[in-house]
Amino acid sequence: MRLVPLLRRSAAAALLILPTSAALAQADEAGGRVVLVLPFDNRSGQSNIDWIGESFANTLNARLRSAGFLTISRDDRVYALDHLGLPTGFRPSRATTIRIAQTLDAQFVIVGNYSLKDGNVIAQSQVLAVNQLRMSAPIEQSAGLPRLLDVENNIAWLSARSMDPKFAVAQNTFQAASAGLKLDAYESYIRGITATTDDERLKRLKTAVELSPTNADALLALGKTEYANGEYDNAAAVLAKVPANDRLALEAGFYRGLASFNNAKYAEAEAAFAAVSIKLPLPEVTNNQGVAMARQRKDATALLQRASTADPQDADYHFNIAVALRRRGDNLHAKTQIDQAVKLRPNDAEAKQLQGVVTGATPPAPGFDPQERIRRTYSEAAFRQAAFQIDQLRAARLATLPPAQQATEYTQAGQDYLNQGLVLEAEREFQSALAADGNSPAGHLGLATVRERSGNADDARKEAQASIASKPTAAAWLLLARLDFSANQTAAAASDISNALRLEPTNPAALSMKSSFQSRGITVQ
Protein backbone atom coordinates (compact mmCIF):
# COMPACT_ATOMS: atom_id res chain seq x y z
CA MET A 1 0.00 0.00 0.00
CA ARG A 2 1.56 3.27 -1.10
CA LEU A 3 0.72 6.76 0.00
CA VAL A 4 1.39 8.93 -3.05
CA PRO A 5 -0.86 6.97 -5.45
CA LEU A 6 -3.66 7.27 -2.89
CA LEU A 7 -3.20 11.04 -2.93
CA ARG A 8 -3.15 11.30 -6.71
CA ARG A 9 -6.93 10.93 -6.83
CA SER A 10 -7.37 14.21 -4.96
CA ALA A 11 -4.51 15.89 -6.78
CA ALA A 12 -5.80 14.80 -10.17
CA ALA A 13 -9.25 16.09 -9.24
CA ALA A 14 -7.87 19.61 -9.07
CA LEU A 15 -6.47 19.13 -12.55
CA LEU A 16 -9.93 18.68 -14.06
CA ILE A 17 -9.80 22.39 -14.81
CA LEU A 18 -6.91 21.58 -17.20
CA PRO A 19 -6.68 19.35 -20.30
CA THR A 20 -7.12 15.74 -19.18
CA SER A 21 -4.49 14.09 -21.36
CA ALA A 22 -1.85 16.60 -20.40
CA ALA A 23 -2.79 16.30 -16.75
CA LEU A 24 -2.36 12.54 -16.78
CA ALA A 25 0.99 12.77 -18.53
CA GLN A 26 2.26 15.35 -16.10
CA ALA A 27 0.93 13.39 -13.11
CA ASP A 28 3.28 10.56 -14.05
CA GLU A 29 6.14 12.96 -14.77
CA ALA A 30 5.73 14.71 -11.42
CA GLY A 31 6.70 11.55 -9.59
CA GLY A 32 10.30 11.79 -10.79
CA ARG A 33 11.27 14.46 -8.23
CA VAL A 34 9.64 13.10 -5.08
CA VAL A 35 12.01 13.48 -2.13
CA LEU A 36 11.85 12.06 1.40
CA VAL A 37 14.02 13.80 3.99
CA LEU A 38 14.49 11.84 7.21
CA PRO A 39 15.34 13.58 10.50
CA PHE A 40 19.07 13.73 11.01
CA ASP A 41 20.57 11.47 13.65
CA ASN A 42 21.88 13.18 16.80
CA ARG A 43 25.37 11.80 17.47
CA SER A 44 26.35 14.40 20.03
CA GLY A 45 25.17 12.44 23.05
CA GLN A 46 23.25 15.57 24.14
CA SER A 47 19.50 14.94 24.19
CA ASN A 48 18.74 18.65 24.64
CA ILE A 49 19.60 19.21 20.97
CA ASP A 50 17.48 16.35 19.60
CA TRP A 51 15.23 19.02 18.05
CA ILE A 52 17.99 19.85 15.55
CA GLY A 53 17.42 16.52 13.79
CA GLU A 54 13.86 17.48 12.90
CA SER A 55 14.95 21.00 12.02
CA PHE A 56 17.23 19.61 9.30
CA ALA A 57 14.31 17.70 7.78
CA ASN A 58 12.03 20.72 8.02
CA THR A 59 14.50 23.16 6.44
CA LEU A 60 15.51 20.79 3.65
CA ASN A 61 11.85 20.11 2.88
CA ALA A 62 11.11 23.83 2.66
CA ARG A 63 14.08 24.69 0.44
CA LEU A 64 13.71 21.71 -1.90
CA ARG A 65 9.97 22.34 -2.25
CA SER A 66 10.69 25.94 -3.23
CA ALA A 67 13.33 24.68 -5.65
CA GLY A 68 10.81 22.57 -7.56
CA PHE A 69 11.03 19.18 -5.86
CA LEU A 70 7.96 17.42 -4.45
CA THR A 71 8.91 16.80 -0.82
CA ILE A 72 7.09 14.48 1.55
CA SER A 73 5.72 16.18 4.66
CA ARG A 74 6.45 15.21 8.23
CA ASP A 75 2.87 13.97 8.69
CA ASP A 76 3.17 11.64 5.71
CA ARG A 77 6.55 10.42 6.89
CA VAL A 78 5.05 9.61 10.30
CA TYR A 79 2.18 7.83 8.51
CA ALA A 80 4.64 5.67 6.59
CA LEU A 81 6.54 4.72 9.73
CA ASP A 82 3.29 3.83 11.46
CA HIS A 83 2.13 1.83 8.44
CA LEU A 84 5.35 -0.18 8.61
CA GLY A 85 4.95 -0.68 12.36
CA LEU A 86 7.89 1.59 13.22
CA PRO A 87 7.99 4.22 15.99
CA THR A 88 8.17 7.92 15.03
CA GLY A 89 11.72 8.38 16.32
CA PHE A 90 13.01 5.22 14.63
CA ARG A 91 16.40 5.53 12.90
CA PRO A 92 16.12 3.18 9.91
CA SER A 93 18.81 1.07 8.31
CA ARG A 94 19.47 1.44 4.60
CA ALA A 95 17.14 -1.47 3.81
CA THR A 96 14.34 0.01 5.94
CA THR A 97 14.94 3.43 4.41
CA ILE A 98 14.32 1.92 0.98
CA ARG A 99 11.10 0.31 2.24
CA ILE A 100 9.89 3.64 3.59
CA ALA A 101 10.76 5.37 0.30
CA GLN A 102 8.89 2.73 -1.68
CA THR A 103 5.86 3.11 0.59
CA LEU A 104 5.86 6.83 -0.24
CA ASP A 105 6.88 6.48 -3.91
CA ALA A 106 9.96 8.61 -3.28
CA GLN A 107 12.72 8.65 -5.88
CA PHE A 108 15.26 10.18 -3.49
CA VAL A 109 15.89 9.90 0.24
CA ILE A 110 18.14 12.26 2.19
CA VAL A 111 19.66 10.92 5.40
CA GLY A 112 22.16 12.56 7.71
CA ASN A 113 23.61 13.06 11.15
CA TYR A 114 25.00 15.87 13.25
CA SER A 115 27.13 16.47 16.31
CA LEU A 116 28.09 19.44 18.44
CA LYS A 117 31.71 20.15 19.28
CA ASP A 118 33.13 23.33 20.84
CA GLY A 119 29.94 25.19 19.97
CA ASN A 120 30.02 24.12 16.32
CA VAL A 121 27.38 22.06 14.53
CA ILE A 122 29.02 19.42 12.33
CA ALA A 123 26.61 17.80 9.88
CA GLN A 124 26.92 15.12 7.23
CA SER A 125 24.29 13.92 4.77
CA GLN A 126 23.89 11.64 1.78
CA VAL A 127 21.31 11.31 -0.99
CA LEU A 128 20.00 7.85 -1.80
CA ALA A 129 18.72 7.43 -5.37
CA VAL A 130 16.10 4.76 -4.69
CA ASN A 131 15.63 3.39 -8.20
CA GLN A 132 19.37 3.01 -8.77
CA LEU A 133 20.10 1.99 -5.15
CA ARG A 134 23.00 4.44 -5.28
CA MET A 135 24.21 6.54 -2.37
CA SER A 136 25.87 9.89 -3.06
CA ALA A 137 29.21 10.94 -1.67
CA PRO A 138 28.89 12.44 1.83
CA ILE A 139 27.95 16.12 2.02
CA GLU A 140 29.61 17.84 4.96
CA GLN A 141 28.99 21.27 6.48
CA SER A 142 29.84 22.90 9.79
CA ALA A 143 29.42 26.28 11.50
CA GLY A 144 28.76 27.77 14.91
CA LEU A 145 25.42 26.82 16.45
CA PRO A 146 23.97 30.34 15.87
CA ARG A 147 24.51 29.67 12.14
CA LEU A 148 22.58 26.38 12.15
CA LEU A 149 20.26 27.61 9.39
CA ASP A 150 23.25 28.35 7.16
CA VAL A 151 24.41 24.77 7.58
CA GLU A 152 20.94 23.44 6.78
CA ASN A 153 20.51 25.73 3.75
CA ASN A 154 23.91 24.71 2.38
CA ILE A 155 23.11 21.02 2.73
CA ALA A 156 19.75 21.62 1.01
CA TRP A 157 21.50 23.33 -1.92
CA LEU A 158 24.18 20.65 -2.24
CA SER A 159 21.48 17.94 -2.06
CA ALA A 160 19.54 19.64 -4.86
CA ARG A 161 22.70 19.70 -6.97
CA SER A 162 23.26 16.01 -6.23
CA MET A 163 19.75 15.07 -7.34
CA ASP A 164 19.76 17.39 -10.35
CA PRO A 165 23.23 18.21 -11.77
CA LYS A 166 21.62 20.88 -13.97
CA PHE A 167 20.16 22.69 -10.97
CA ALA A 168 21.03 26.35 -11.53
CA VAL A 169 19.71 28.28 -8.50
CA ALA A 170 22.56 29.95 -6.63
CA GLN A 171 23.69 28.88 -3.16
CA ASN A 172 23.31 32.45 -1.88
CA THR A 173 19.64 32.34 -2.82
CA PHE A 174 19.12 29.35 -0.54
CA GLN A 175 20.80 31.29 2.24
CA ALA A 176 18.60 34.33 1.63
CA ALA A 177 15.43 32.22 1.85
CA SER A 178 15.70 32.07 5.66
CA ALA A 179 16.75 35.69 6.15
CA GLY A 180 15.01 37.20 9.16
CA LEU A 181 14.14 33.86 10.77
CA LYS A 182 15.22 33.90 14.41
CA LEU A 183 16.87 30.70 15.56
CA ASP A 184 15.18 30.75 18.99
CA ALA A 185 11.78 31.12 17.32
CA TYR A 186 12.63 28.28 14.93
CA GLU A 187 13.71 26.06 17.82
CA SER A 188 10.40 26.71 19.61
CA TYR A 189 8.51 25.89 16.42
CA ILE A 190 10.36 22.60 15.90
CA ARG A 191 9.95 21.64 19.55
CA GLY A 192 6.26 22.49 19.21
CA ILE A 193 5.49 20.34 16.18
CA THR A 194 7.39 17.40 17.71
CA ALA A 195 5.90 17.73 21.23
CA THR A 196 4.20 14.62 22.55
CA THR A 197 1.53 16.39 24.64
CA ASP A 198 -1.08 19.00 23.72
CA ASP A 199 -0.02 21.33 26.53
CA GLU A 200 3.63 21.25 25.51
CA ARG A 201 2.76 21.70 21.84
CA LEU A 202 0.56 24.71 22.57
CA LYS A 203 3.15 26.28 24.88
CA ARG A 204 6.02 25.91 22.40
CA LEU A 205 4.03 27.15 19.42
CA LYS A 206 2.76 30.20 21.30
CA THR A 207 6.37 31.00 22.18
CA ALA A 208 7.38 30.62 18.54
CA VAL A 209 4.69 33.07 17.43
CA GLU A 210 5.59 35.53 20.19
CA LEU A 211 9.24 35.46 19.10
CA SER A 212 8.42 35.68 15.40
CA PRO A 213 4.86 37.00 14.89
CA THR A 214 5.00 36.82 11.08
CA ASN A 215 6.34 33.28 10.79
CA ALA A 216 3.66 31.55 8.70
CA ASP A 217 4.78 28.01 9.68
CA ALA A 218 4.38 28.80 13.39
CA LEU A 219 1.06 30.58 12.85
CA LEU A 220 -0.35 27.65 10.91
CA ALA A 221 0.84 25.08 13.45
CA LEU A 222 -0.58 27.11 16.34
CA GLY A 223 -3.89 27.66 14.57
CA LYS A 224 -4.26 23.97 13.77
CA THR A 225 -3.44 23.04 17.37
CA GLU A 226 -6.04 25.46 18.71
CA TYR A 227 -8.56 24.13 16.20
CA ALA A 228 -7.87 20.55 17.32
CA ASN A 229 -8.39 21.67 20.93
CA GLY A 230 -11.79 23.18 20.09
CA GLU A 231 -10.60 26.79 20.51
CA TYR A 232 -12.30 27.85 17.29
CA ASP A 233 -12.31 31.63 17.75
CA ASN A 234 -8.61 31.67 18.64
CA ALA A 235 -7.80 29.31 15.78
CA ALA A 236 -9.61 31.43 13.20
CA ALA A 237 -7.91 34.60 14.45
CA VAL A 238 -4.42 33.06 14.32
CA LEU A 239 -4.94 31.43 10.92
CA ALA A 240 -6.15 34.74 9.50
CA LYS A 241 -2.68 36.15 10.17
CA VAL A 242 -1.05 33.86 7.60
CA PRO A 243 -0.41 36.19 4.64
CA ALA A 244 -2.64 35.52 1.65
CA ASN A 245 0.37 35.23 -0.67
CA ASP A 246 2.23 32.74 1.51
CA ARG A 247 2.61 29.14 0.32
CA LEU A 248 0.79 28.02 3.50
CA ALA A 249 -2.21 30.27 2.94
CA LEU A 250 -4.29 27.52 1.33
CA GLU A 251 -3.96 25.16 4.27
CA ALA A 252 -4.50 28.02 6.70
CA GLY A 253 -7.62 29.04 4.81
CA PHE A 254 -8.99 25.50 4.91
CA TYR A 255 -8.64 25.22 8.68
CA ARG A 256 -9.88 28.76 9.18
CA GLY A 257 -12.99 27.73 7.28
CA LEU A 258 -13.43 24.69 9.51
CA ALA A 259 -12.94 26.77 12.66
CA SER A 260 -15.57 29.27 11.51
CA PHE A 261 -17.90 26.45 10.46
CA ASN A 262 -17.63 24.75 13.85
CA ASN A 263 -18.50 28.08 15.45
CA ALA A 264 -21.61 28.35 13.25
CA LYS A 265 -20.11 31.35 11.43
CA TYR A 266 -21.13 29.96 8.09
CA ALA A 267 -20.65 33.08 5.97
CA GLU A 268 -17.06 33.40 7.20
CA ALA A 269 -16.51 29.71 6.55
CA GLU A 270 -17.87 30.01 3.02
CA ALA A 271 -15.56 32.95 2.30
CA ALA A 272 -12.52 31.10 3.63
CA PHE A 273 -13.22 27.97 1.57
CA ALA A 274 -13.98 30.06 -1.52
CA ALA A 275 -10.63 31.85 -1.26
CA VAL A 276 -8.84 28.49 -1.22
CA SER A 277 -10.96 27.00 -3.99
CA ILE A 278 -10.16 29.83 -6.40
CA LYS A 279 -6.47 28.95 -6.29
CA LEU A 280 -6.67 25.18 -5.88
CA PRO A 281 -10.13 23.68 -6.42
CA LEU A 282 -9.71 20.32 -4.76
CA PRO A 283 -13.01 18.49 -4.17
CA GLU A 284 -12.86 18.67 -0.37
CA VAL A 285 -12.58 22.45 -0.55
CA THR A 286 -15.36 22.85 -3.09
CA ASN A 287 -17.54 20.51 -1.03
CA ASN A 288 -16.96 22.48 2.15
CA GLN A 289 -17.73 25.75 0.41
CA GLY A 290 -21.02 24.24 -0.69
CA VAL A 291 -21.83 22.86 2.76
CA ALA A 292 -21.17 26.27 4.34
CA MET A 293 -23.51 27.81 1.77
CA ALA A 294 -26.18 25.23 2.51
CA ARG A 295 -26.10 26.05 6.22
CA GLN A 296 -27.08 29.60 5.24
CA ARG A 297 -30.13 28.21 3.40
CA LYS A 298 -28.52 28.85 0.02
CA ASP A 299 -28.76 26.39 -2.86
CA ALA A 300 -25.30 24.84 -3.08
CA THR A 301 -26.17 22.03 -5.49
CA ALA A 302 -23.82 23.24 -8.23
CA LEU A 303 -20.78 23.32 -5.93
CA LEU A 304 -21.61 19.94 -4.42
CA GLN A 305 -21.96 18.43 -7.89
CA ARG A 306 -18.60 19.92 -8.87
CA ALA A 307 -16.95 18.19 -5.91
CA SER A 308 -18.54 14.86 -6.80
CA THR A 309 -17.58 15.17 -10.45
CA ALA A 310 -13.98 15.70 -9.37
CA ASP A 311 -14.07 12.68 -7.05
CA PRO A 312 -16.96 10.37 -7.97
CA GLN A 313 -15.76 7.62 -5.63
CA ASP A 314 -16.52 9.64 -2.50
CA ALA A 315 -19.81 8.52 -0.96
CA ASP A 316 -20.27 11.69 1.09
CA TYR A 317 -20.29 13.88 -1.98
CA HIS A 318 -23.14 11.87 -3.49
CA PHE A 319 -24.95 11.99 -0.15
CA ASN A 320 -24.61 15.77 -0.04
CA ILE A 321 -26.05 16.21 -3.52
CA ALA A 322 -28.97 13.97 -2.58
CA VAL A 323 -29.68 16.09 0.49
CA ALA A 324 -29.53 19.30 -1.54
CA LEU A 325 -31.78 17.94 -4.30
CA ARG A 326 -34.33 16.61 -1.80
CA ARG A 327 -34.47 20.03 -0.21
CA ARG A 328 -35.34 21.42 -3.66
CA GLY A 329 -38.08 18.80 -4.02
CA ASP A 330 -36.22 16.87 -6.73
CA ASN A 331 -36.51 13.36 -5.31
CA LEU A 332 -36.06 11.76 -8.73
CA HIS A 333 -32.48 12.97 -9.15
CA ALA A 334 -31.86 12.73 -5.41
CA LYS A 335 -32.54 9.00 -5.69
CA THR A 336 -29.77 8.58 -8.28
CA GLN A 337 -27.27 10.24 -5.98
CA ILE A 338 -28.26 8.48 -2.78
CA ASP A 339 -28.28 5.11 -4.55
CA GLN A 340 -24.67 5.74 -5.55
CA ALA A 341 -23.77 6.81 -2.00
CA VAL A 342 -25.20 3.59 -0.55
CA LYS A 343 -23.48 1.53 -3.23
CA LEU A 344 -20.13 3.05 -2.29
CA ARG A 345 -20.77 2.76 1.46
CA PRO A 346 -23.39 0.05 2.17
CA ASN A 347 -23.18 0.38 5.97
CA ASP A 348 -24.05 4.10 6.07
CA ALA A 349 -27.23 4.05 8.17
CA GLU A 350 -28.19 7.69 7.55
CA ALA A 351 -27.71 7.29 3.80
CA LYS A 352 -29.89 4.15 3.75
CA GLN A 353 -32.57 5.99 5.70
CA LEU A 354 -32.47 8.87 3.19
CA GLN A 355 -32.64 6.35 0.36
CA GLY A 356 -35.88 4.94 1.76
CA VAL A 357 -37.37 8.43 2.17
CA VAL A 358 -36.61 9.73 -1.34
CA THR A 359 -37.94 6.53 -2.96
CA GLY A 360 -41.06 6.63 -0.82
CA ALA A 361 -40.32 3.18 0.58
CA THR A 362 -40.31 4.47 4.16
CA PRO A 363 -41.79 7.64 5.67
CA PRO A 364 -39.34 10.05 7.31
CA ALA A 365 -38.96 9.54 11.04
CA PRO A 366 -39.95 12.46 13.29
CA GLY A 367 -37.22 15.07 13.18
CA PHE A 368 -35.44 13.45 10.25
CA ASP A 369 -33.48 16.29 8.65
CA PRO A 370 -30.18 15.14 7.12
CA GLN A 371 -27.55 17.82 6.58
CA GLU A 372 -24.74 18.06 4.07
CA ARG A 373 -21.51 16.62 5.43
CA ILE A 374 -18.39 18.74 5.89
CA ARG A 375 -14.97 17.32 5.05
CA ARG A 376 -12.77 17.83 8.12
CA THR A 377 -9.50 16.43 6.84
CA TYR A 378 -6.92 18.31 4.81
CA SER A 379 -4.40 16.36 2.77
CA GLU A 380 -1.34 18.59 2.63
CA ALA A 381 0.39 16.14 0.31
CA ALA A 382 -2.56 16.15 -2.10
CA PHE A 383 -2.58 19.94 -2.11
CA ARG A 384 1.16 20.12 -2.72
CA GLN A 385 1.06 17.43 -5.38
CA ALA A 386 -1.76 19.21 -7.19
CA ALA A 387 0.13 22.51 -7.05
CA PHE A 388 3.28 20.72 -8.25
CA GLN A 389 1.46 19.14 -11.17
CA ILE A 390 -0.19 22.43 -12.12
CA ASP A 391 3.28 23.97 -12.19
CA GLN A 392 4.46 21.12 -14.43
CA LEU A 393 1.51 21.68 -16.75
CA ARG A 394 2.30 25.36 -16.94
CA ALA A 395 5.86 24.52 -17.99
CA ALA A 396 4.54 22.15 -20.65
CA ARG A 397 2.19 24.85 -21.98
CA LEU A 398 4.93 27.48 -22.03
CA ALA A 399 7.22 25.12 -23.94
CA THR A 400 4.85 25.40 -26.92
CA LEU A 401 5.24 29.20 -27.08
CA PRO A 402 7.92 31.20 -28.91
CA PRO A 403 11.07 31.72 -26.76
CA ALA A 404 10.47 35.44 -26.21
CA GLN A 405 6.91 34.81 -25.02
CA GLN A 406 8.09 32.03 -22.72
CA ALA A 407 10.62 34.42 -21.20
CA THR A 408 7.95 37.09 -20.72
CA GLU A 409 5.67 34.74 -18.79
CA TYR A 410 8.47 33.30 -16.68
CA THR A 411 9.76 36.74 -15.74
CA GLN A 412 6.29 37.90 -14.78
CA ALA A 413 5.95 34.88 -12.48
CA GLY A 414 9.40 35.60 -11.09
CA GLN A 415 8.47 39.20 -10.39
CA ASP A 416 5.32 38.03 -8.59
CA TYR A 417 7.47 35.83 -6.36
CA LEU A 418 9.87 38.71 -5.71
CA ASN A 419 6.96 40.88 -4.64
CA GLN A 420 6.14 38.19 -2.07
CA GLY A 421 9.74 38.04 -0.85
CA LEU A 422 10.22 34.50 -2.23
CA VAL A 423 13.69 34.84 -3.72
CA LEU A 424 14.28 31.13 -4.27
CA GLU A 425 11.08 30.64 -6.24
CA ALA A 426 11.77 33.88 -8.12
CA GLU A 427 15.22 32.73 -9.21
CA ARG A 428 13.78 29.50 -10.61
CA GLU A 429 11.46 31.53 -12.83
CA PHE A 430 14.17 33.90 -14.02
CA GLN A 431 16.51 31.00 -14.76
CA SER A 432 13.72 29.40 -16.82
CA ALA A 433 13.22 32.68 -18.68
CA LEU A 434 16.90 32.83 -19.61
CA ALA A 435 16.89 29.15 -20.58
CA ALA A 436 14.12 29.98 -23.04
CA ASP A 437 15.65 33.24 -24.25
CA GLY A 438 19.22 33.95 -23.18
CA ASN A 439 18.90 37.59 -24.31
CA SER A 440 15.81 38.37 -22.24
CA PRO A 441 16.50 41.77 -20.65
CA ALA A 442 13.78 41.22 -18.05
CA GLY A 443 15.20 37.78 -17.21
CA HIS A 444 18.67 39.21 -16.60
CA LEU A 445 17.22 42.10 -14.60
CA GLY A 446 15.15 39.74 -12.46
CA LEU A 447 18.18 37.59 -11.76
CA ALA A 448 20.18 40.73 -10.93
CA THR A 449 17.52 41.69 -8.39
CA VAL A 450 17.69 38.25 -6.79
CA ARG A 451 21.47 38.48 -6.60
CA GLU A 452 21.22 41.95 -5.05
CA ARG A 453 18.81 40.71 -2.39
CA SER A 454 20.96 37.69 -1.59
CA GLY A 455 24.04 39.87 -1.13
CA ASN A 456 25.95 38.81 -4.25
CA ALA A 457 26.88 42.25 -5.62
CA ASP A 458 29.34 41.01 -8.27
CA ASP A 459 26.85 38.67 -9.93
CA ALA A 460 24.08 41.26 -9.56
CA ARG A 461 26.26 43.73 -11.48
CA LYS A 462 26.97 41.20 -14.25
CA GLU A 463 23.28 40.43 -14.69
CA ALA A 464 22.29 44.12 -14.69
CA GLN A 465 24.93 44.86 -17.32
CA ALA A 466 23.69 41.91 -19.40
CA SER A 467 20.16 43.31 -19.18
CA ILE A 468 21.35 46.73 -20.34
CA ALA A 469 23.38 45.19 -23.17
CA SER A 470 20.24 43.44 -24.39
CA LYS A 471 17.93 46.43 -23.92
CA PRO A 472 18.66 49.45 -21.71
CA THR A 473 15.95 50.16 -19.13
CA ALA A 474 15.65 52.64 -16.30
CA ALA A 475 15.15 49.78 -13.82
CA ALA A 476 18.47 48.15 -14.79
CA TRP A 477 20.37 51.44 -14.58
CA LEU A 478 18.87 52.14 -11.14
CA LEU A 479 19.91 48.70 -9.91
CA LEU A 480 23.45 49.48 -11.05
CA ALA A 481 23.19 52.83 -9.27
CA ARG A 482 22.34 51.09 -5.99
CA LEU A 483 25.27 48.70 -6.41
CA ASP A 484 27.68 51.50 -7.26
CA PHE A 485 26.52 53.61 -4.34
CA SER A 486 26.93 50.66 -1.95
CA ALA A 487 30.46 50.26 -3.28
CA ASN A 488 31.16 53.96 -2.59
CA GLN A 489 31.41 54.67 -6.32
CA THR A 490 29.28 57.80 -6.16
CA ALA A 491 30.32 59.23 -9.53
CA ALA A 492 29.38 55.99 -11.28
CA ALA A 493 26.10 55.86 -9.37
CA ALA A 494 25.28 59.43 -10.41
CA SER A 495 25.98 58.51 -14.04
CA ASP A 496 23.70 55.48 -13.71
CA ILE A 497 20.87 57.68 -12.44
CA SER A 498 21.40 60.08 -15.34
CA ASN A 499 21.15 57.21 -17.81
CA ALA A 500 17.91 56.07 -16.17
CA LEU A 501 16.43 59.58 -16.44
CA ARG A 502 17.37 59.85 -20.10
CA LEU A 503 15.22 56.80 -20.74
CA GLU A 504 12.41 57.78 -18.34
CA PRO A 505 12.57 61.46 -17.35
CA THR A 506 9.62 61.14 -14.94
CA ASN A 507 10.63 57.84 -13.32
CA PRO A 508 9.75 58.34 -9.60
CA ALA A 509 12.53 56.09 -8.27
CA ALA A 510 15.16 57.83 -10.42
CA LEU A 511 13.95 61.28 -9.41
CA SER A 512 14.00 60.27 -5.74
CA MET A 513 17.57 58.98 -6.01
CA LYS A 514 18.61 62.15 -7.87
CA SER A 515 17.13 64.31 -5.12
CA SER A 516 18.87 62.22 -2.45
CA PHE A 517 22.21 62.54 -4.24
CA GLN A 518 21.85 66.28 -4.74
CA SER A 519 21.06 66.74 -1.05
CA ARG A 520 24.46 65.15 -0.39
CA GLY A 521 26.12 67.57 -2.80
CA ILE A 522 26.51 65.01 -5.59
CA THR A 523 25.62 66.34 -9.04
CA VAL A 524 23.34 64.24 -11.24
CA GLN A 525 22.99 65.43 -14.83
TrEMBL record:
Quote the SUPFAM superfamilies the UniProt record gives.
TPR-like (SSF48452)
Q: Which UniProt keywords apply?
A: Repeat, Signal, TPR repeat
Matching entries from PANTHER family are given as: LIPOPOLYSACCHARIDE ASSEMBLY PROTEIN B (PTHR45586:SF1), TPR REPEAT-CONTAINING PROTEIN PA4667 (PTHR45586)
Q: Which InterPro entries match?
A: CellSynth/LPSAsmb/PSIAsmb, TPR-like_helical_dom_sf, TPR_rpt
Q: What is this protein called?
A: Tetratricopeptide repeat protein
Q: Where are the TPR repeats?
A: 474-507
Pfam families, per the entry = TPR_16 (PF13432), TPR_19 (PF14559)
Signal sequence, renumbered to the chain: 1-25
**Entries under Gene3D superfamilies matching the protein:** ABC-type transport auxiliary lipoprotein component, Tetratricopeptide repeat domain
Q: Does the keyword Secreted apply?
A: no
Q: Which SMART domains match?
A: TPR (SM00028)
Keyword Signal assigned: yes
Source organism per UniProt: Terriglobus roseus (strain DSM 18391 / NRRL B-41598 / KBS 63)
The source's domain of life comes to: Bacteria
